[in-house]
Amino acid sequence: MIFFKLAHLGKIALVVSLSALGGCETMPTAWKAETAAIDETTGEGVYYPKVSSVETPDIRFGRMAGFGPQERQFFVDQVNLAASTPGRTFPIVAQAVGENNETLVFTYLGDGSMTPYLSRGILARLTSITRAAPAIAEMGLSSEFDVYNMAAVLGFARVTVTDGRHFAHQADLRQS
């Protein structure tokens, strides 16, 4: 059962095949003094600045049973490994952060500042990659499966897109 779950997790990770991904487990001490309010439960103030905008997307798929912090970290690790394939260019770093790794953060590494439009573009590209992946069809998921639903299935409570400097857009995936 665990092999089955991890095999599917690896397939889902390939869906979001990004480039040059990586992460840092701890924040350097010198940075701590520069950050404003730190929220350890979400990663705000540690991995991204204060959230600029929030949305609550429609989540159509429920959380898969048995997915916890280790599985979410494994997913991000697999995305990072898959994304190291030469020839892929998508200047994003993905991380699972916060309490129980429940925040999926995509940090834009490109030049200039992030805008809401660039944020939407990044999420649209990730959705296109998600929808086009053979693994999604193999798992019996519909074409309505987007980046938010993928994250919710894996147990992420929120997705944040940031430039790591001044801008952070967050989607709250928790359904009431």
From TrEMBL:
Residues 1-22 form the signal peptide. This is Lipoprotein. It comes from the Bacteria. The lineage of its organism: Bacteria, Pseudomonadati, Pseudomonadota, Alphaproteobacteria, Parvularculales. Keywords: Signal. It comes from Aquisalinus flavus.
